[in-house]
């Protein structure tokens, strides 16, 4: 399994917004400059974070993106589930099994066992990622009022 490329970007977007001085909104262009990613690809990621209700967007002269939830409640699992377009572990068995083995009942049992095990693995991954809140990645007191003016 490979994490989506925008997972790390999303984590940093949320950390930047959490530490923004007075939690003032940041424009996507400024975020893309800070993260050194294209503004168009970042906007797709930001949209996913908005849909997941992790950030809000205000399209005005002084608007931009702000956190919609506290970093003390947002977990790595929340971020991954926000940016992942499909289930985390997507397995579709091929027809190889039916070409190699002849017992259809056993094949079905084996494929069900694989699916159940992958589902458990996905749940375990989500649970583990759910244990780490983004606030744990920041220095103490860095996010209560924001300590960095990222707009400069």
TrEMBL record:
GO terms for molecular function: DNA-binding transcription factor activity. Pfam families: Rrf2 (PF02082). GO terms for cellular component: cytosol. InterPro entries: Tscrpt_reg_Rrf2, WH-like_DNA-bd_sf, WH_DNA-bd_sf. This is Transcriptional regulator.
